[in-house]
Amino acid sequence: MTSQPLAARVKTLDIFSAIADDLRQVESAIEEALATEDAMLDEVSTHLLHAGGKRIRPALVMMTSKFPGAQLGRAIPVAVAVEMIHMATLVHDDVVDKAEVRRGRPTVNAKWSNQVSVLTGDNLFAKGFSMLAQTGNTRVVKIMADVVYELSRGELAQLASYFQVNQTEADYYQRIAQKTGYLIAACCRLGGVVGGAEERQVEALYNYGMGVGLSFQIADDLLDFHGSAAKVGKPVAGDLKTGILTLPVIHALKHSQHADELRRMIETHNIGDTEIDRVKAILDEAGSFTYARQQADLHLNNALAELEHLPELATRSDLQVLADFVINRQF
Amino acid sequence: MTSQPLAARVKTLDIFSAIADDLRQVESAIEEALATEDAMLDEVSTHLLHAGGKRIRPALVMMTSKFPGAQLGRAIPVAVAVEMIHMATLVHDDVVDKAEVRRGRPTVNAKWSNQVSVLTGDNLFAKGFSMLAQTGNTRVVKIMADVVYELSRGELAQLASYFQVNQTEADYYQRIAQKTGYLIAACCRLGGVVGGAEERQVEALYNYGMGVGLSFQIADDLLDFHGSAAKVGKPVAGDLKTGILTLPVIHALKHSQHADELRRMIETHNIGDTEIDRVKAILDEAGSFTYARQQADLHLNNALAELEHLPELATRSDLQVLADFVINRQF
After folding, report:
1. ipTM of the predicted structure?
2. Residues of chain A with pLDDT under 70
3. What pLDDT does residue A229 have?
4. In this complex, do B145 and A137 lie within 8 Å of one another by their Cβ atoms?
5. Is residue B1 part of a domain?
6. Among A87, A327, B136, B209, which has the minimal tally of Cβ within 10 Å of its Cβ?
7. Does residue A1 form part of some domain?
8. Could you write out the DSSP letters of every residue in B229-282?
9. Which residues does chain B have within 8 Å of residue A147's beta carbon, measured at their own beta carbons?
10. Chain B residue whose CA is closest to A123
């Protein structure tokens, strides 16, 4: 989601303190799952482990599994498998995006090659699904297989959407649900399933995750415009320069009195820092940033409302803090 | 395995005639599974469907499922999922091998891009695993996840093995088991599982598949040296030119009196048609082709011996014909 390491976040907000012990166990289990005699796989795995990551997804699995009587041993392998599959998608995404740096380190494709990335990603997918199969619960497998299906659809849709000025808000929401929402929602659903929650609680968790995921993605898209390059670790408005139109841009293309000018700028497929300043002025004037921020709040409030249905969940207040953190982090 | 279309093979040898109806149902189900509203995925799927394929793997699932009382409806979704996952590995392999043509048509990476290939492959993996999860049987999921794990290991091992003159026969066998054997063996094991076979029959099917897979791969490696370019559809000795050392080469590096000369030629990393003629003369003189052919026969005989344990399987004689075909096809 962002490029801050887990340690930094946890230190700042203690959002995962309730499950700190669980996360240590998850981390050891990830290391164990990545262990291999194969020289090349071992090099890549070590690189990925050292690159760290926030482990937000396994943390969500653990936090949403804390129902009365839940067994830690059931949740941990699922949390590990989810992180392996997430790692696989990141390794493949870096090939798709031709990215050279992730989490401050060279990507697998930059350090080795696209070939190694494709195969390492497949290897991580396979390991993740093998672990999920070992739970003996095909529902758990299907939840994650369907997430990977939607993720790949979302990435393909994004490739086809570059610089497309006629896309709608509905297109945007479908894409961010596929890219971010379904996986976060699935982590929460999986926590409920392995934690032995009742079906309506499992669905409340899913809805909570979807609200947090959508809210997070909109916040991340805003951060792309307003974060400083040094803080965010990416060039300002990198999305728009690449051709990815996010919610504030789509809003302004419809509502700004300068929509034609904005459209023409985007259709040049060549947006530099000078153009970005003008784009930001147009979006500001049209209230597009405010609108996007309101939408992020809306989805966050939807997420928080779902927590009402989960009085038995020991970590309910932690999920509330996590949701608030997602939207209130420094822009 | 080779580039002949299914229709050509079936016409020649009727090896799949016992399950021709099943295969028509499998084909419709593959089309249905690939159906999508997404424009880009639909284009790629249509391309992959038109490229055809021999459907050997789903055919093996169907042929090995014909135990008394087996339900067609249990085997077909598994056969379809296996083919989807196989397609995914082919699409990814073409990125890894930078291949431009497969089955006489441009590869997905050549026609679209590496990006589209990575994501389409992931999409096919996900669809395949989602279908396997829908069987409600996690064993079925685990069998295929473990195959994909081994396949990716084998491909990575192959990348690391290019032009490595010190590799052993054991290295070769591990690699071809990972690249070809485990998947063929898994198809046969899956047929047994969904056909309701007893455990010792399931293992006999697995061993049959492994023997056929290894035998096939050695035969294919021989074909690379001795097939005409027009017939095989690939350049002669393409493997060696690429740096892939197959069984006859590994044999000659150990047993030929010209082993030093052979080693030096390989270590130039630059083997053209002139060198290939000399390599073939060296391998011929060292009896390396004969040795490889004997090894292929050995694994085939191992496969055939396993069929003795399967008196109840209605398609047992068809599996015998199929195995004979694998090794006796035109070189």
Report:
1. 0.91
2. 1-13, 228-234, 329-331
3. 60
4. no
5. no
6. B136
7. no
8. HHHHSS-TTHHHHHT---HHHHHHHHH-TTHHHHHHHHHTT---HHHHHHHHHH
9. 126
10. B149
